Amino acid sequence: MSASPTPSPAALTALADRLGPDGLITDPAELHVYECDGLPVHKQAPAAVALVRSRDEVQAVVRWCGEHGVPFVPRGAGTGLSGGATPSLGSVVIDLNRMRAIREVDLENRFAVVEPGLINVDLTAAVTADGFHYAPDPSSQTACTIGGNVAENSGGPHCLKYGVTSDHILALEVVLPCGEIVRIGSPLAEPAGLDLVRLFVGTEGTVGIVTEVTVRLTPNPESVRTFLAIYDEMAAACRTVTQITRAGIVPVALEILDQRTIRAVEASVNAAGYPEDAAAVLLIELDGLAAGMDEEEAAITEIVNANRPLSFRGARDVRERTALWKGRKGAFGAMGRVNTDLYVLDGVVPRTELEATLEKVYEIADRWGVMVSNVFHAGDGNLHPNISYDGRDTDAVDRVLKAGREMMEACVAAGGTISGEHGIGLEKMEFMPLVFNEEDLELQMGIRDALDPDHRSNPGKIFPDMRAMRKKLRGAQSGARP
Amino acid sequence: MTRAKSEREQAFLPDVGDVAVPETIAQLAELVRAAEADGRAVLPAGNGAHTGTADLPKNPQLISTVALDRLETYEPDDFTVGAQAGVPLKWLREELARNGQELPVDLGAAAAGTVGGLVARAPLGPRTHRYGSVSSLLLGANGVRGGGHAWHSGGMVVKNVAGYQVGKLMAGALGHAGFVTRANFRLRPLPESRSLRVATGTPEAVTRCAHALKQSGLEPTLAILRGRLVANLRADGLPVPAGDVAVAWGFEGSEPRVKWQGAQAAHVVQGARQDLDLGPEDRNLGGRFLDFLADFAAPRGADLRDGLVRLVVLPSRLRETAADLAARIAGWRSEPAADSGEAAIGSWEDPFLGTIVLRWSSAELGDAPVAVCTEIARRHGGMAKLLSLPPDLRRRWPHELTGNENQALADRILDVFDPARGFRASRTAATVEARA
Description:
The complex is a heterodimer. By secondary structure, chain A is of the alpha+beta class. Chain A is 35% helix and 20% strand. Chain A contains 17 helices and 20 strands. Chain A has helices spanning 9-19, 28-31, 55-68, 120-127, 146-152, 159-162, 196-200, 234-246, 259-266, 293-306, 318-329, 331-334, 354-368, 394-413, 432-435, 438-451, 466-475, and strands spanning 24-25, 48-51, 72-75, 92-95, 102-106, 111-114, 132-133, 169-175, 181-185, 209-216, 218-219, 223-231, 253-258, 280-288, 311-314, 341-344, 347-348, 371-376, 382-383, 385-389. In chain A, a hairpin with a 5-residue loop joins strand 8 (169-175) and strand 9. The longest helix of chain A is centred in the C-terminal third of the chain and has 20 residues, at 394-413. Chain A starts with 8 loop residues before the first helix and ends in a 7-residue tail after the last helix. The relative contact order of chain A is 0.12. Chain B is α+β, with helices and mostly antiparallel strands. Helix content of chain B is 33%, strand content 22%. Chain B contains 17 helices and 21 strands. In chain B, strands 17-13-15-14-19-20-18-21 form an 8-stranded antiparallel sheet, sandwiched between helices. The radius of gyration of chain B is 22 Å and the shape is globular. At the A-B interface, strand 9, helix 7, helix 8, helix 10 and helix 16 of A face strand 9, helix 7, strand 11, helix 10 and helix 16 of B.
C-alpha cells in the first residue's frame, strides 16, 4: 500500500469542524472497524473516517484531502471481497452510509434517483409494490450499497438474464478527485457523446466518488418458477448448465452449490433442506410471461433428467421458492462454521469450461492442502471457490494464496478472466498481468491519471506496480491476451 | 494495400485519396503513426457504408479495417463470438444463423457495414429496449489508439469486471477514440417466430393504441409510423391498411409465446380500437419489419438524398414531443407525390425508448428539419443527433445537435486515447489546419 503523510491533528480538527458533531472518527479503537472490508487478509487502519451526509460534504472532504495531500477511500457497507475499501496508509475513509435517500422514483420512465449509501435490497423494497425491482442482486444485497455496487460493477444470481450493474446505471453524479462535481449520463435511451457512465462503473473508487445514482428499474415478471435439482456428482450438474446454455434457454438464474457448501449451509441458520449427501445442488429459475413457460420448463426438465439427478422438484409457491433460495443466499455466511477465515475467489470461465475448470479447482486445493468449497453462478460461468482457513496460521495463509493464484490461472487458461463481480481491489492486482499486457494497463492507468493525477482516490488499487510488472512481463514468454 | 472510396466517401471527401487498407494490426498501427507524423487527421473508414454520420475532419487519412476480417472466435455452445472489425455484418448474420443464433441488433435488410462500424455507431433499434444496447452486448474489444498503440479490454466471457471497461467506451464513440480492431459479443438464439401486425388510423387513435400495448405487460416491439414510412412499408408488401399514420407491433420467441401474445394484443387493441383499421397478423413477417425499421434509421449507402435525425426524449414525453413535431412539419408534404409516389417526410417513434427518427427528402426540404428537431428536442428535455444529410448540407451541422455538457470531461479521457487529437480533428479543425 502507498505511504502518505499522516494528516496533522490541526488539519483533522479543521475537517471535524467542517463535518459537524459525529462527522469524523479519529479514535484509534473505532478506526479498527474500517481497517478492512470482506477481505481480511489485508488490513490497514485509516487516519480518520469521515461520515458524510451530503454531496457537499463529500466534496469538502475531497478538497480537504487535496489541500493536505491525503488519499481518500470511499466506503459503502464494507462488504466488498477484494479489498477495494481497505484504507491505504494515512488515508481518510469517506463513509457514505449516511447518504441513503431515494430522491426520486419515476415509474413511467422506469428509473429512480438514489444516494450511494442506499442498501441494494431497500431499493427493490421501495418499488416492488408498484411492480418494479432493481435487478442486480449480489448475495450481499441485504447489506451492500448501491454506490458500492457501482464501484465494483456488481452482479448477482439474476444478472444471467438481466445483466450486471453497468446495464442498469443511467446516470451518475461524481465528485472527481480534484473536487469538481460532474453529472454524466441521463435517463435518456442513449448518451450524448462518449458513454462515460459505462466507463465509470467498475472503476472501484479510483477516479472519484459517486454521490448520486440514477438506476434503471425493471418490471417484475408476471411469472416465476424455481426448481432444485440434486446430483450425486458435480460433473452432472455442470453438464446440465452447459446443455441448458447450448439449447439457447436463458433462465434468470442457474446456481450451483457443492457438497461442502451444502453441509455448511444445512448446519447454519439458513438451512434450506438440501440433502447433505448430495454432491451438488442446482437452482434453476425461470421468469417472464406465463405463456410459453410450460414449454421452457419442459425443455429444462428434459435436460436435467438426461443428466440423471437424484431428484428434481419445483417450488409450488412463494414460500417454497424463498426456502430454496435461502440456502444459496446464506452460503457465504455459513462458511464461517468451517474455519475462522474465508478467502472468496471470483473467476469466470466460458460455460463450456465449467466442468473441467471445477475439476482443476479441486485438484489445486488438494495439492496445496487447503479446503475449498464451491458456490457459483453457473449460468454465466462465474465461479466462487471459497477457501476456508485459519488466518493465524501463516503457513496456511501462504498455501491459500498460492492455491488461489493457481485457480485464477486456471480460469484464464480456460479462456476466462480473473473477476466476474468482486472487482480487483487489492486482492487481484498481481493477477492483472494474467489478462492484460503492458499496453492495456498503460491505457487504463492513463485514464486514471487523467482524472486523478495525484493518485489520491483509492490509491494502490486495481493496477499493479508497473516497474515490477514490466520486469515480470518482459521476462515472460508470451503476452497475456484471452 | 488500398481500396477505392465508397460512393459516400467520395461524396463527403472528394479531395481525399484512396483508402489505406492495412492487412495486420501492425500495419494499422504504422499507418496511424505515419498520419500523426504528417499532422493529418485519421478517419476510421470500415467499408464506407455510413460515412457522414460522424463529423468529418478536413483532409483525413482514411484507413479501413476491412482486411481485418477474420471471425477469430465463435463458441456456439457458449453463445459468444469474437470478430475482427472488418467482418461484414451481413456475413456475420448468416454465419450465426447457421447455428440458429443472432446478435440481437437490428441491422437492416442489407446489413451494410462492418463489425467495427457497428461498435462505432452503436445504433438504437426496435429491439434495443428488449435486448440491450450494443454496449450491453459487447463483452470485450481490441483497438488501436493514437500513437499506434494496440490495446484490449474485456474478453469472451459474459461477466467481466477486470479493470476499466475501456471496450464499452468505444460503443458509440464514432471512431473518436481510435480504431476498434475486434469486438466480442454475446449472442441469443434466433427466435422461432416473429410476428407483425399493423393498424392505421387517426394520430390520436394510433398513439392511444401504441401506449395501451406498451402498458399491457406484453413484450412487443412497438412502433408508431408516419408519412412516407407507412407508404414504403405498404409498397414493400407488408400488410398495412390504408392511411399514413400507423402503429405496428410484433412479438418474437417460441411459437406458443408469440401466438399467445398476439391474441392478448388483439384484446388490448380492441379496447383502444376507435378509428383504427386493423390489418391481419402475420407470424412470419416480423423479421422483415425489423429490417425495414433499421434501414429507415440508417444512412442508406449510396443514397445521399435524405436527411435523417434521431430525437431522444423520456418515454413519458414522447407523445407531446411527437405532437409538437407533427404540428411543426404539418406543412411539409407527407402524402406521396404524384410523380415519385414518395412523400417528403416520414417518422418512426419508439414508445419504449422515447425516440423519434425523422427522415425526409432533402431535395424538397433541404436541412430545414434539422433546426426544428433540435429546437423540439431541447424544449422537451431531450437530445437530437444528426445521422445523415447530403454533403453540402452536412457540413453546416454537428452530429450532436443538442451539444454535450460533458465534452470537456470526455476530452480529458479522449486525450489518453488520442493525444495528437488526430481522431477528433472534426472538433479541433483549427489545430489540424495549424499543423498542416
